[in-house]
Amino acid sequence: MDAVFAWFRRLWSEAEAIWISGGWAMWAIAVIAFAMLGIGVHTWLRLRALGYSDVPEDQWRTWIERPRGRAGRIGDILDFVTGGKTIKETSFFFAQLRQTEAAPFERDLKIMKICVSAAPLVGLLGTVTGMLTTFDALATGSGGDKTMAMIASGISEALVTTETGLVVALPGLYFQYYLSRNFEHYRAFLAHLETVCAQLLHRRRSADEQRAVETAAKNEIAALLQRAVS
Description:
Radius of gyration: 32 Å
Helix content: over 70%
Order of helices and strands: HHHHHH
Distance between the termini: 108 Å
Number of helices: 6
Largest sheet: none
Number of domains: 1
Number of strands: 0
């Protein structure tokens, strides 16, 4: 156990030394990394809370025709979108649902995309400032130990910031892609749900029209028979 603690202390000391050598850009990259991580985790939890992948299609198809059995987030969505009596009203409800639910996800994913792009750029800016420090040391120094320390500090800042920016950007890129894929699956689910609801309304409307035609025909035949008898 003592060996493990010693290893962690040594690792922390090395990480702290690398962090300090990166200069001011390390703080900016850290802010970007924490913002990206926080937004990503929040978006992931919200996508999981939707629960659209936990309910089988046969189940929510049954819920469309049997409102009493609805439950969970999908049940709430069906309660909202099935309030329309016509296909036009149903499309309007789905448009409202996409506007209220999809907009926050799109905003957060855009912010994550900006963070992914900003991290290596800030690292590159730190590289430029590090190289400027190096060139300044070469131009003004006299070649002693102080000059060599300034040169080493500038080169370290240039390399560390570039590496840190890429280390932050690459996992963030994959995380943002993963969340975008899950969000696209949710949008595809809503589109499929809207199609099923529209087809059901169309079948009901066709059945109602057919019954109306049959009722009118029966009434007409009854009227003809009554006139023939009289």
